[in-house]
Structures are given as structure tokens and as C-alpha cells.
Amino acid sequence: MMGNEFSVLLTFPALSLLLQAERFIVREGLRYRVQPIPSHLQAGCGMCIAVQAADAERVDALLGAEGIGHSLQRV
Using CA atoms, how far apart are residues 57 and 18, in angstroms rounded to an integer? Predict the structure, then answer.
């Protein structure tokens, strides 16, 4: 696995939203990981979901359609 494979971070204002988002990402069969937000980013609940750049737009649209508040951060 390359170090930059998961280069887009999804941040959430609350952990409950992160957990909702994770359910949708799993349902779509996408690769992801839950991790602490890097120290140089000050955002949300302290945790984030990292996804592959190729999946970022799909995940963003999915979460938007479900009304799950989030932000995208490219790293």
C-alpha cells in the first residue's frame, strides 16, 4: 500500500456524522480508513475518514445527497 493512497480526508463536525458516513461508504464497497485528523488540520470531531482521490467526488456526492455535513481536505 502506498503512503499517499488515501489522499482525501473527510472531516465531520460530530462523531455521529462520521459513523453515518462510514455506513454509506461501506455500503458502496469503497476502500477507506478512519483515522485521527492530522495535527496541521483543525477541524471537527478529531477523527476523519480517508478515501482514495479517485473516490472523493463519488463520496462527496453520496454524503451530500444524504445530508451528512462534511468537508473535504486533500493532503
Answer: 17
Domain limits, the chain: 14-70
For the chain, where are the E strands, in sequence order?
8-11, 32-36, 47-51, 71-74
Pairwise CA distance, residues 61 & 4, whole Å: 22
| This prediction's pTM | 0.90
pLDDT at 2 over 60: no
pLDDT at 1 > cutoff 70: no
CATH value of 14-70 in 1.10.357, 3.40.50, 3.30.470, 3.30.70: 3.30.70
